[in-house]
Design goal:
By secondary structure, the protein is of the alpha+beta class. The protein contains eleven helices and 38 strands.
Length: 661
């Protein structure tokens, strides 16, 4: 017995486990999609003890997602599911008096999303509103007696007994929009005041305009909102901020007159100042732009541009309780950090950052802040930002991550042939042997105005899980490097971006990371468009996948939703045909393409219509280049059905394994 005890102690002392071995971690695979939850919309209770949020999960049997309302205690020790309806719930909001937790749901006969109330003392949720067509958004008045509703007009009823759908009668300038479809309906979005006790709704705004971004003043006497009230809002992006008294029949005041966009108004705690963001450019169409943090008197006056000198996008402005500081999120060269701006002079202090991404900033308890935070090896969870350090509140991702060996993410910079420094992120498969060349997939982000950041990227993790090194490159046109860096590609697509992307691949090959004989390229939206440009400009790639792309820009004029961009950035085809032909070179020079290419698109995509993928597929079939075309039925620009998302992952992996391994 003594010998056995000594033997056991020897094993323990040597670090050898005598229990069952922990299962080895494995690479991520497409089926893991079904295990991945999604969190959003954290909101602090009035007493500071709880944080409500929305948790979305996938039902693989129903092939759909369902969202429920949860709440976690401020110390993170308790996490409670509050709703479990199959219809889904969202936009949970605490009444300021702490009595109610409200939410939106389309429960009961699918009459559109309605506001429901759940008593904090317990019990089932009860429907509060019954508005035809449903509620888009809402917020509580400071006294908890009223709701500010944002509602889109209900569609006119068709009393005809003829079952054939009536023709779409279209007479507006921008007549197509992804998801919305053909824009022929004479409906608008307006604001309403709803009395909670009397269940009575009064109209606040009306007319042939749309309102959004509405928010109560601290004393509940007025509402600030955003609207484009130009002669034809379809022809520009000139949104302005207005203020209206919170009573029926009140007149409104226009606060801003910038010819670009003014959005996201937020009242200061004393109600005397409004913070908001505005575009740098006053042009009718400003794709290559960034939001600048501004403040102006609520009574009207000249604005102060607090973050203009920063030359980085600032999002989600939120006032601190002292009214002296405005917090926001800043996108800066692969990072998205929390910053504080002095309301007097705009002096900025970086609050929390690093190689991670913060989103959805909201006030927290004790002067702290709530945010969603994501890292390359961890999807978004809810955190409290305390003294500049994030403290984790939720832990829904632990079960998802437990069996997985994920790719590592490391930043790199490459120099393009013209001397431009370009930032990127390299994903190395788990267990990759140092010094060994790997097959590389250049996975290109869309936008083009967006950036690849240090967050959890499921697509790149999935490709790396297949044994590939994956590169994310913030080519010229991306944001996070200043307006000039973004705008330099305006009207000159498929030029400098292509130079930057090839330059990044050259650097990865030179460093001995990427195998020059096993290179692939893929992307979606503008990433798909750039994939077409890349394979038409060089034969170095042995496989490609272009999603929601196009190689013949001229053919999409008037067919997609970007009529303002075409006219303002490139010109009309009858005045600028040479520019259209120049940027349409993937199809016009398709005989140069030798890369086997997989084309994908959503059947109902009005953002980059399926025709763009169909034309490239047909060209390569004609030329005898290996190619396939995948159309996802009923899907828009973003593929949302879980089984189709998994299918896309499976097809990417199969395609690149076939040609790169």
């Amino acid at each position: 017995m003594l010998k056995l005890s000594l033997l056991l102690l020897a094993f323990v002392g040597a670090g050898v486990s005598i229990n069952a071995q922990t299962p080895a971690k494995r690479p991520i695979r497409p089926a893991d999609l079904y295990r991945l939850p999604s969190l959003s919309d954290p909101q602090l209770s009035p007493d500071g003890k709880w944080v409500s949020y929305t948790l979305s999960t996938i039902d693989s049997v129903k092939d759909s997602r369902n969202a429920d309302i949860w709440m976690v205690s401020w110390d993170g020790s308790q996490d409670i599911q509050l709703t479990s309806s199959p219809d889904g719930e969202s936009r949970a909001r605490w009444s300021p008096d702490g009595r109610w937790l409200s939410f939106l749901s389309s429960r009961q006969e699918g009459k559109g999303a309605q506001v429901w109330l759940m008593d904090r003392r317990g019990g089932e949720g009860k429907r509060l509103t019954e508005i035809k067509g449903g509620v888009n958004d809402y917020s509580w008045s400071p006294d908890s007696k009223k709701l500010l509703l944002t509602v889109t007009d209900a569609e006119p009823e068709d009393s005809s007994k003829i079952k054939t759908t009536k023709p779409y009668v279209i007479d507006r300038y921008q007549y197509k929009e992804d998801v919305e479809g053909y824009r022929y309906k004479k409906i608008h979005t307006h604001l309403y005041i709803f009395d909670v006790a009397a269940k009575k709704m009064d109209t606040l705004t009306r007319g042939s305009y749309d309102e959004g971004g509405a928010t109560w003043s601290p004393d509940g006497s007025a509402v600030a909102f955003v609207s484009n009230r130009t002669a034809d809002p379809d022809r520009n992006e000139n949104s302005d901020i207005y203020v209206i008294e919170a009573r029926p029949g009140a007149g409104m005041r226009q606060l801003t007159d910038w010819k670009g966009s003014d959005t996201g108004p937020r009242w200061s705690p004393d109600g005397k100042t409004i913070a908001y963001t505005r575009s740098v450019s006053a042009e009718d169409y400003h794709m290559y732009d960034e939001p600048v943090l501004c403040v102006m008197p609520a009574a009207g006056g000249a604005p102060k541009l607090l973050s203009q000198a920063l030359d980085r996008p600032v999002y989600s402005p939120r006032w601190a309780k002292d009214g002296q500081t405005i917090y926001g999120l800043v996108a800066d060269d692969r990072e998205e950090y929390v910053a504080a701006f002095a309301s007097v002079d705009g002096k900025m202090t970086k609050v929390a950052g690093g190689q991670r991404t913060f989103t959805t900033l909201e006030p927290g308890a004790d002067g702290n802040w709530l945010a969603m935070m994501s890292e390359p090896q961890c999807p978004g969870e809810i955190y409290s930002i305390e003294g500049g350090a994030p403290r984790r509140l939720t832990r829904h991702m632990e079960a998802f991550l437990a069996p997985l060996a994920l790719a590592t993410a490391e930043g790199f910079q490459s120099k393009s042939p013209d001397g431009t420094m370009v930032s990127g992120i390299l994903y190395r498969p788990a267990g990759a042997v140092a010094g060994t060349k790997l097959p590389l997939i250049l996975f290109i982000h869309g936008g083009p105005v967006g950036q690849d950041a240090f967050d959890f990227d499921l697509s790149r993790q999935m490709l790396a899980g297949g044994g590939f090194a994956v590169a994310a490159v913030n080519y010229r046109g991306s944001n996070g490097r200043g307006v000039a860096y973004s705008k330099i590609i305006s009207g000159d697509w498929g030029n400098k971006e292509v130079v930057d992307l090839h330059g990044a691949v050259d650097w990865l090959v030179k460093q001995g990371i990427a195998d020059a004989d096993h290179l692939g390229v893929a992307g979606w939206s503008y990433g798909g468009i750039l994939t077409d440009y890349l394979i038409a400009s060089d034969t170095r790639f042995k496989a490609a996948s272009s999603g929601a792309g196009t190689g013949f820009t001229l053919s999409l004029y008037g067919v997609d939703q970007y009529i303002n961009q075409y006219n303002n950035e490139i010109g009309t085809p009858w005045t600028s045909i040479d520019r259209y032909l120049k940027i349409s070179y993937p199809l016009l020079k398709a005989d140069r393409i030798k890369t086997p290419a997989l084309f994908m698109s959503g059947e109902k995509d009005f953002n980059v219509p399926t025709a763009g993928s169909e034309q490239m597929y047909q060209a390569l079939r004609t030329l005898g280049v290996p190619t396939e075309l995948i159309i996802y039925p009923g899907q828009f620009h973003g593929i949302t059905m879980p089984s189709y998302q998994r299918d896309r992952f499976d097809r990417w992996l199969a395609w690149f394994r076939k040609y790169l391994k």
